[in-house]
Amino acid sequence: MNFDVQQIRKDFPALHQEIYGRPLVYFDNAATSQKPQVVIDRISEYYRTINSNVHRGVHHLSQQATDAFESSRNHIQQYINAQHAREVVITKGATDSINLVASSFGQKYLKQGDEVIISSLEHHANIVPWQVICEKTGAQLKVIPLTESSTLDLQAFQKMLNKKTKIVAVGHISNALGVVNPIREIIEMAHDFDIPVMVDGAQGIVHEKVDVQALDCDFYCFSSHKFYGPMGVGVLYGKTYWLSAMPPYQTGGEMIKSVTFEKTTYNDLPFKFETGTPNVADVIGFESAIKYIEDIGIAHIKTYEDDLLEYGIQKLKAIDGLRILAEGAPKAGVISFLLKDIHPYDAGTIIDKFGIAVRTGNHCAQPVMDLLEVPGSIRASMAFYNTREEIDRLVEAILKVREMFA
User: Fold this and answer.
1) Helix, strand, or coil here: 118?
2) Residues whose CB is less than 8 angstroms from the CB of residue 335 and which lie 6 or more positions away in sequence, other chains included
């Protein structure tokens, strides 16, 4: 494998700065990733040379913008191996994508007494939208419990599936703990009951190759900004069958075919779900991020990140008084830990003074923290531009925290 992390780091300008007089160590990638220069340049180039609205325009710049925008959609389709470009809906982010599915699917298919299944490991973005639509429709929200090793209890999940279950919504990888869920098995189990499955892939697509046809998921949601692209862009993949049947999520320009004061007819897929002016520059920037990842190779990235994660776990678990959450579970990219009885916020504040960015708190996953009976955690989330030397610096900072609170 020809993987040169030092060469890769040169592509990310934000990594080369000092925080409190120390070189930055960025371990907050699960919240958002840093951006390679090619992404920044692509966005700047759009505003310098094209900067026109997409679709409907007959002038040259509008056609250029439309071609670039739709090329980006096609590239996303190819990257996730969707069957059709119409199955790729551009949204504002993974949260927006989940809200779209919950609202539109729920409006169409949920009624009093129906059931929606999520898991104990979900981000708030894959909990609250389902709570809201269940309150509106009278459906019930069911939750897959955890095993003692903080993995999903598939035996319990099997028993939960029944004719009342209308949809299963589950994360690919836990943002709070890094636990990799067996989504292929979950999808197969649900499909045995003809139940559709929505996967929150905000963390999943970052760490491994996603093939939506191979998974046979009905919906897959993810964001650009965690995948080395700009903020404000997301993707909803949905099978044509479901997207065709579901009503529009929002209304206005672009998602219409014709409008009179008496009646409106809606546009074809995917435009039925894309209202108003899209975030053209950042969608195009996201395509550049995908190209960048393809040039390196997601398989190479996964191999490197898995090795880095294993190194980090071994180094951190050797620290006296440090507890890694969900240590025995299959993981990707995240070490979530506590240090003795030191509050995560206090520890994170001190670690920051060493120029190291970690995240503290419940990571928008309060229910799982409540289940683990912890106030939150310190989360070090890694990317392929991080290094073993940076992990060593984190260890030094943690040892200093422990010394200060001794």
Assistant:
1) strand
2) 178, 309, 312, 313, 316, 324, 379, 380, 381, 382
Q: Which two tokens stand for residue 7?
A: 């060469």
In this structure, the strands spanning 356-357 and 25-26 are: parallel
Active site residues: 364
CA distance 223 to 230: 9
DSSP 8-state secondary structure symbol assigned to residue 276: S
C-beta pairs of 262-271 under 8 Å, 24+ apart in sequence: 268/86, 269/86, 269/87, 269/89, 269/240, 269/243, 269/244, 270/73, 270/85, 270/86, 270/87, 270/88, 270/89, 270/90, 270/243, 271/55
pLDDT of amino acid 406: 81
Angle in degrees, CA 404, 405, 406, rounded to 5: 95
Q: Where are the domains of the chain?
A: 5-30+297-404, 41-294
Q: Are 358 and 351 in contact (CB under 8 A)?
A: yes
CA angle (309, 146, 227) in 5-degree steps: 40
Q: Which of 316, 300, 304 is nearest to 378 (CA)?
A: 316
3.40.50.2300, 3.40.50.1000, 3.40.640.10, 3.40.630.30: which CATH number matches 41-294? 3.40.640.10
Q: What is the mean pLDDT of residues 213-217?
A: 98
Edge-to-edge order in the sheet of strand 140-144: 88-91, 234-238, 219-223, 197-200, 165-171, 115-119, 140-144
In CATH, the architecture of 5-30+297-404 is: Alpha-Beta Complex (3.90)
Burial class (CB within 10 angstroms; exposed 0-12, middle 13-18, buried 19+) of 20: exposed
How distant, in Å, are the alpha carbons of 25, 170, 223, 342, 375 from that of 203? Answer: 20, 12, 9, 28, 23
Q: What are the pLDDT digits (tens) for 15-44? A: 999 999 999 999 999 999 999 999 999 999
How many Å apart are CA 27 and CA 391, to the nearest integer?
9
Q: What span, in angstroms and rounded, lies between the C-alpha atoms of 155 and 62?
A: 54
| Interval 319-331: pLDDT, tens | 999 999 999 899 9
